[in-house]
Every structure is written in structure tokens, then in C-alpha cells.
Write a structure and sequence with these properties.
about 400 residues, alpha+beta, 2 domains, five-stranded antiparallel β-sheet, elongated
Length: about 400
């Protein structure tokens, strides 16, 4: 998906420069080569920046504006930089009308992305604030904990859980991360037949010590300081912890009655407020974790906030969460990301129970440095050749 996004951005930049060539230069052939080269290069480089900044796992409609704006700006610079005559004094009325229509369509597309998924708020009848649980960072699984964690799905609400992952660095992109790099995840919950009225999920990462692709005895809950989830805007509310009034980390698991329990991540339109977590940075991953929206706050081992209203996810729609995992040195091996979906109408969020759907997502961390991929080298080649080519063309036409 990463390569496709970069190519898509490149094509958008190219089409934008061609449109500018047709409108501003009325198809003057001597401007075609420099404008298309600048458009393709600027679009490609914008795509590289986009996937590096976001992981390349999603492409909202507003993102298409970036290569268009960059291509327009640089193409306009080229038009004014080239020798006379630069821009035609007259513009075809037909082409002008086409450009206005394109701008309106783009504006509507951007506005559409800001429309939230239709869904009702369902008020919670339970107050979970002030419950006490001891958070844990790592835990070695035994047979008892496995039976408690991995219970058979009920399928009460038909649901598909899908996942995308990518590891993007400045000079490479891959589905397989290497030690010292990050891997980004996007997990989508697609609901069918019935509304997901009181949604919550649970997730955790386990080191697959015997590398058999299953969560079983001897596997280990991976240290939660290495990952962070809910990095995207929305209604998903994870759990963050404070100690002595200071932010420490996002937490995913607790110990209760000698067993490990995964903490719920609620899809809530409203929660009570003890702290506004968006004002703090937590220690998950070396770059830290600043929540995109207010989360559920813990003061030590005491939960200080609770869900006031759930945000229902209607049948036929979907909702996604995004996260980022850091792969520290000497972490090579195979891992399993466990994702479970629940509905608070049927289960207690703070107890291990049968999920309505679940999925185990395997991934591997390799040792060493990633190779430079063709996607990035092609972008670099285009960037290096653009500026010299403009000078050559200018000298040729002077």
C-alpha cells in the first residue's frame, strides 16, 4: 500500500501540472516537459513525506490536496522562471470553467471527510471509576492465563477485523520491521447485520517464544513501553497512568486475582474528566505518546474516570484504530498482536470474557538495517534530476 500511495501522489502531481499547462500556457509545447517533470517529482516527494509521517496505512480525502498544492506552487514558479513569454494573457473560458469545477469537487471531497460516522450515543449505566487494579508491563503466560484470555468468540455481532502494517524509515519501506525501527498498524473493525451499541476492544502484544504462530504457554506479554495505540483522532479511549501526579505510560494489562487481564479500550462519545490527557506526553516508545483525545486516566492503580456515553458503530459501517510499535535493539523474533472486540451489553469490560470477535495478527522483527528500496531511490532520482533539467531547458530556450 505504501508504494501505491507514493505512485498515486506522483500521478496527482503530474495531472496537476498538466492541467496548469493547459490552462495557463494554453498547451504551449515548450512548457510541457519542465512542468510535467516538476509535477511528477513534487507529487512523488510529497508522497514520500506523507508515508514517512503517517506510516502510509491510510489515505483520507484531504490528503490529495497536498500533492496538488505543492505541484501548483512549484509549477507556477517554473512558469515565472522560464524566459518570455511566460504565461498567456488570455485563458480559455472553457478551461477556466473546468478548473472551477475541479476546485469545487475537491472542496466537497475535503468537507466530506469531516462528516462523522452516523451513530447514536448510548449512556452507560455502570460507573467503573475508583476500581483498583495493578498494572503490569510484562507477564509470562501459563495454561491458566491462556484459558482466561483466549476464549471462543460468540459472533453475537458479525464483524470482520482486518489489519494493515508498514515499517517506514527515511530511506526504506517494508512490511517487516528491523530492530531500531518503528512499525505502524491500522486495525479496522467492520460491523454487519447489527449495531455495535457499546463497543470496546482489548489488545496486547505477545512475544512468540516458540515461534509456532499461536499464543500458548511460555509466550510472554511484551513490555508495553514499546508500543502505543490510539494514535488517530476519534472516539476510542485507551488507558493512561499517572504516578504522584506525573504522567508515566499508556497501559494495556493488569493483574487481578493472580491472573492477567487486558484493559478495555472504549469507543465513547463522552467520559468523565479527572485529567485532560491530551496535555501530557507518556513514555511509550522513545518518541513518546501524546493522546489525540482524552483517555481514561489512572492514578497509580486506581481508575479515576469512566465512560459516560458509548458511541455506537452502526451496522454496515467500520471504525479503525492506529498504533505504533518500536522495535528496540535485540528484539528480533516473532510476535503476535491479539485484538478482541466486545460489547458492554454482554460482558464486563474489566473481566476476561468471551469476545464477539477476535484476531491474532503475526509480525516479525528482523535484525539489522533495512535495504534502500526502489520506491525511495526513484524518488531521490527524480528530485536530483528536476532542478538540473530546469536549468538545461532554460539555457536551451534562451
Amino acid at each position: 500500500m505504501v508504494a501505491e500511495e507514493v505512485i498515486f501522489f506522483g500521478m496527482l502531481g503530474l495531472l496537476t501540472s498538466i492541467a496548469l499547462w493547459m490552462i495557463s500556457a494554453e498547451g504551449n509545447k515548450r512548457y510541457f516537459f519542465p512542468l510535467t517533470l516538476v509535477g511528477l517529482t513534487s507529487g512523488w516527494l510529497t508522497g514520500l513525506i506523507w508515508v514517512y509521517a503517517t506510516g502510509g496505512l491510510s489515505l483520507p480525502l484531504y490528503a490529495v490536496l497536498f500533492p496538488v498544492v505543492v505541484s501548483l506552487t512549484l509549477s507556477a514558479v517554473v512558469l515565472f522562471y522560464l524566459p518570455e513569454p511566460k504565461i498567456t494573457e488570455s485563458i480559455s473560458p472553457k478551461l477556466f470553467n473546468i478548473s472551477i469545477i475541479i476546485l469545487i469537487v475537491m472542496g466537497l471531497a475535503v468537507a466530506y471527510t469531516s462528516i462523522p460516522i452516523t451513530g447514536t450515543s448510548t449512556y452507560s449505566t455502570e460507573d467503573y471509576s475508583n476500581i483498583q487494579m495493578q498494572s503490569i508491563k510484562t507477564y509470562k503466560l501459563d495454561d491458566r492465563s491462556i484459558q482466561s484470555l483466549l476464549q471462543k468468540s460468540t459472533n453475537q455481532i458479525p464483524m470482520d477485523i482486518s489489519a494493515l502494517k508498514s515499517s517506514v524509515s527515511l530511506m526504506s519501506s517494508s512490511d517487516t520491521p528491523y530492530t531500531g525501527s518503528y512499525v505502524s498498524f491500522r486495525i479496522t473493525f467492520s460491523v454487519s447485520n447489527y449495531d455495535w451499541v457499546k463497543p470496546y476492544i482489548k489488545l496486547a502484544i505477545f512475544k512468540d517464544n516458540n515461534e509456532n504462530g499461536e499464543i500458548d504457554e511460555g509466550d510472554e506479554l511484551w513490555n508495553s513501553v514499546n508500543y502505543k495505540f490510539i494514535t488517530n483522532l476519534g472516539s476510542w479511549r485507551a488507558n493512561v497512568k499517572y504516578e504522584n501526579g506525573q504522567p508515566t505510560e499508556e497501559i494495556f494489562a493488569v493483574r487481578e486475582d493472580g491472573e492477567i487481564a487486558m484493559l478495555p479500550i472504549f469507543h465513547a462519545s463522552q467520559i468523565s474528566t479527572w485529567r485532560d490527557d491530551t496535555q501530557y506526553t507518556f513514555t511509550n516508545t522513545p518518541e513518546g505518546y501524546t493522546p489525540p483525545q482524552d483517555m481514561l486516566s489512572w492514578d497509580g492503580d486506581t481508575l479515576k474516570e469512566t465512560v459516560v456515553a458509548y458511541q455506537t458503530i452502526p451496522a454496515g459501517s467500520s471504525s479503525s484504530i492506529e498504533g505504533k510499535i518500536y522495535c528496540p535493539p535485540n528484539s528480533q523474533g516473532k510476535y503476535l498482536l491479539l485484538v478482541q472486540a466486545f460489547d458492554a451489553r454482554f460482558t464486563n469490560p474489566y473481566k476476561n470474557d468471551k469476545p464477539i470477535a477476535q484476531k491474532i495478527i503475526p509480525f516479525e522483527i528482523k535484525e539489522g538495517e533495512p535495504e534502500i528500496t526502489i520506491d525511495w531511490t526513484m524518488g531521490i532520482i527524480l528530485a536530483v534530476t528536476t532542478v538540473p533539467s530546469i536549468f538545461v531547458v532554460r539555457r536551451w530556450w534562451s
